Amino acid sequence: MNTYLSKRNRALLSELVRTDFKLRYQGSALGYAWSVLKPLLMFVILYVVFVYFLRIGKDVEHFPVYLLLGIVMWNFFTEMTIQSLSSILNRGDLIRKIKIPRWTIVFSSSISAVINLALSLVVVGIFMIINGVELTPYALLFPLNIFMLYILALGVSYFLAAAFVKFRDLNYIWDVVLQAGFYVTPIIYPITMVPSVTIQQVLLLNPIAMAIQDARFNLVTQTTVTTESLLSFAWTIIPIVITIGIFILGITYFKSQSSSFAENI
């Protein structure tokens, strides 16, 4: 019976992922191409504004790749959490009609975001070749940076998905939080532009900032300032603990609310 349920859940999860991915670009002339074009267009705009008008990033080695990688990773976090936020509500009919593991609905949204991330990273790879970025052994650590960001986003996604069932204004609040987070996190500007070293240190205790800066260090340039280089290795434990804590909190809250989803949708 357990084996049967396991196979059934895998088949259901696969179908949910395919459906999410198809519906996202349904009716769009360019279709799946938008998963690559969106971060690429954002990169072009920010690159022109910050490099040619504001003269930011000229001292950063391989800044185009540096900037693009940051945008891609931030977009992955935002896309995953935004899509997951309304996932339970959007699947209300399915939840009422079929006895379905609630967690698979949010998880399927996360897999869809991972697929988009993989497509975007192909573009990053092309830019790396064009800009002459040479891979080092540190590149082997890059998947760990993505994994950390994924676990953080998954924990947030489960919390948001469960909370949104009861609090329908949460999507507006989350939009504001993401807008603020985009500027607080060193994505479009080097962390060294922040005048206070203390503020730099505080910013790099943010798990998203740590994941992005470490990814840039491992994949683009070893001159990137990271949590470890600015503070010490011991301080890197804090963002990791925050990530694990948010993941556990999100899963726990989702589990506690899942039994009432059908009633509140």
What does this molecule look like?
This protein has 265 residues and is mainly α. The chain has one domain (31-264). It has 13 helices and no strands. It has helices spanning 2-24, 34-53, 63-85, 87-90, 92-97, 102-130, 142-166, 170-184, 197-203, 207-219, 227-230, 237-257, 261-264. The longest helix is centred in the middle third of the chain and has 29 residues, at 102-130. The protein is globular and about 60 Å long. Mean pLDDT is 86; it is low at 1-5.
Give a short synopsis of this structure.
This protein has 265 residues and is mainly α. It has one domain. It has helices at 2-24, 34-53, 63-85, 87-90, 92-97, 102-130, 142-166, 170-184, 197-203, 207-219, 227-230, 237-257, 261-264.
Question: Percent of residues in helical segments?
Answer: over 70%
Described by the principal axes of the CA atoms, the overall outline is: globular
**Strand segment tally:** 0
Given as residue ranges, the uncertain stretches (5+ residues, pLDDT < 50) are: 1-5
Search tags:
disordered N terminus; globular; 13 helices; mainly alpha; 265 residues
Write the layout of secondary structure elements.
Elements: H1 2-24, H2 34-53, H3 63-85, H4 87-90, H5 92-97, H6 102-130, H7 142-166, H8 170-184, H9 197-203, H10 207-219, H11 227-230, H12 237-257, H13 261-264
Helix pairs in contact: 1-6, 2-3, 2-6, 3-6, 3-7, 3-8, 3-10, 6-7, 7-10, 7-12
